[in-house]
Specification:
The protein has a single domain (12-79, 88-164), classed as Up-down Bundle (Ferritin). Helix content is 76%, strand content 0%. It has 6 helices and no strands. The longest helix has 31 residues, at 123-153. The protein is elongated. One fe (ii) ion is lined by residues 29, 59, 103, 106, 139.
């Protein structure tokens, strides 16, 4: 009878493993943005600090969204261990460049989850992941826009560049 009270797993086990990996990636992104927020906070870069604190929150929400989905689908969500994040940056530009690299990495990983779900006819996961596909397009676009601002501002002092970055 034990199996009768257990929820039926409605996602493919291979997809579940990849989703658990994605949870770890989102939580790592959250920790990494928190480090960037702190770096900006220490330098009174007000717009950037607000941006990265918000990003840190959002990435945690992404991780939790997947976490809850895995458990709701009858799987087993794993609380990830977070590897050490970089807290040291050369410049504000580098912070945003690293942000774009990270977002591109996350996008690739989401695409892998999505195509695996599709290839295994795991419709529940495919539909669930659609939101993340669109979210990544938006996130990459925001960061690319900020990096364009750096190109336009050239050698302007850090604080002046920060003041010209789009407010969230
Ligand atoms: Fe995310
Ligand atoms: Fe993101």
């Amino acid at each position: 009878m034990k199996t009768a009270i257990r929820k039926q797993m409605s996602i493919h086990p291979k997809v579940m493993d990849m989703l658990n990996n994605q949870i770890a990636l989102e939580m790592h992104a959250s920790a990494s943005y928190l480090a960037m927020a702190s770096w900006c906070d220490q330098r009174e870069l007000l717009n950037s600090k607000a941006f990265f604190y918000k990003q840190a929150e959002e990435e945690r929400e992404h991780g939790m969204k997947i976490f809850n989905f895995v458990n709701d689908a009858g799987g087993a969500a794993i609380s990830p261990s977070i590897p050490l994040v970089n807290n040291d940056f050369e410049s504000l530009r580098e912070v945003y460049e690293k942000t774009l690299d990270q977002e591109i990495h996350v996008t690739h990983s989401i695409h892998k989850c999505f195509s695996l779900a599709r290839s295994l006819n795991d419709f529940a996961s495919e539909v669930f992941l659609q939101w993340f596909v669109s979210e990544q397009v938006e996130e990459e676009d925001v960061v690319r826009g900020i990096l364009d601002t750096f190109d336009l501002m050239g050698d302007m002092p850090l604080k002046m560049i920060d003041e010209r970055l789009p407010k969230e």
